[in-house]
Design brief:
8-stranded mixed sheet; single chain; 8 helices; alpha/beta; 266 residues
Amino acid sequence: MSKIKDFIKIRARPNLNEPTMIAAWPGIANVAMIVTTYIARKLEVKELAEVRAPYFFDPIGVMVRNNIVEEPQFPQSRFYYWKNPSGNDLILFIGEAQPTTNSYALANCIADAAEHFKVKRIYTCAAAITRIHHTEDPKVWGVGTNIDVVKELAPHSLVNGGHLQISGMNGILLGVAKERNMDGACLLGEVPNYATRMHNPIAALAVVLALSKILNIKIDHAELMMAAIAVREQMKQIAAEAMGEYIDYFTEPIWESNEDDSENDE
């Protein structure tokens, strides 16, 4: 309990029914953050707690407004909850940024909170970088902290990724859960290897749909689907422009070749 009081400020004390936790930080293609912030908005979650940021983050400077120095600002790391009328409740943890040096400590802090709120299982999300084309529908990969979790995920048609690495906090938290013998899983949406720097609601949509089935929670995905369609069109345009540049760089118009040939003939 002392760890919770020292590192986490609790803002509400709801009576939660064996909650599941979904935790997310910014990562490749921003898949994890798109998933969690979308779910938070659609379920209209309520604030539960907040990590005391100065224990895990160092400010890189301060803002000055009208010649007045402001107080140091830290990224927010907050817990939210949602009461499920027909099943297990849900806790969302959303971290605005990943710490540069205290990742393991922060992961243990989140795990402490999970134990405090009697979380049944921790989920994280991430991107699976593959050779998928942007016109294809991405699949969702699933991994677990133990064989029982993997078996429970199996009926949901998730890809067995085999050997892979989950970078950053979205992976480290599951490693800490493994150390504590806690159930945990990560759902990874496929992202084209040439589009890792773009926000990818296409992969996020696939993960949201998978999560809603696994957790048996109805989530309106229409808005996210529209965002996915828009980004797919954007990727299509970028690919067309890239192909045009490729053609311009590596080929030459046929009339230029003919002119060279005619000069040589003379």
